[in-house]
Amino acid sequence: MESLPHCETLLLEKQGPALLVTINRPDVRNAMSLQMVAELSTVFAQIEADPIIRAVVLRGAGGHFCAGGDIKDMAGARTQPAADGEADPFYRLNRAFGQMIQQVNESSKVVIAVIEGAVMGGGFGLACVSDVALAGPTAKFGMPETSLGIIPAQIAPFVVERIGLTQARRLALLGLKIGAAEAERLGIVHQTADSDGQLEELLAQALERVRHCAPGATAETKALLHRVGKEPMSGLLDSAAEKFAQAVRGTEGNEGTMAFMQKRPPKWAEND
């Protein structure tokens, strides 16, 4: 892949077919600044066309995932009057985050969130757009916006997609904070760990499964899943059948079939 972009708020490390992205603002519990939003967007844009990177691991430094929006950015936006003909600074701030989280949601890569400590506001939204979410014992999830007199404007649609309207109503309208066990019960996370060591084991297992799945087929499957409920079923199934035929006749389909018949791992499952 191309050299990784220089980031001030993120630590980037390539590990086989995975890119480890660590949010690195531990002094503010990894609160999400405009700079961090821009850097995450840049990273996901750069790796989108990179065939070597098949998974992105998102986690936070210092024992916290992400405590929500950065208060300094909010204060800065408050001091900027909305100029004639220009969008309100708060609109631009909020919408920039929404564009980034949509980009993560629609990434063709497998996004794995490793979650510890504070998972609030925007951090909660980021967890809700992961493909695989793994929570440690210290994880605390919340949508505190209404208790602060604001609204979860950009994350609410993704929370509804994740856990359904009924549960999203309760969390958002009461500004609740919940632990890892309830987050797993609601479907926010897929697995919870009792210790840091077990959390690392769950991550290793997930990355091993990514390695065994064909990257092209994985990307097409993720794109197909995102279309469910957004277009008529008949047309969706017609399109899916076309994608299936292309996959069967494609390079990965041929390799997968040969590997199965020859009782060997497919090439994409080989260790780098």
UniProtKB/TrEMBL annotation:
Belongs to the enoyl-CoA hydratase/isomerase family. CDD domains: crotonase-like. This is Enoyl-CoA hydratase-related protein. It comes from the Bacteria. SUPFAM superfamilies: ClpP/crotonase. It comes from Marinobacter qingdaonensis. Signal peptide: none annotated. InterPro entries: ClpP/crotonase-like_dom_sf (IPR029045), Enoyl-CoA_hydra/iso (IPR001753), Enoyl-CoA_hydra_C (IPR014748), Enoyl-CoA_Hydratase/Isomerase (IPR051683).
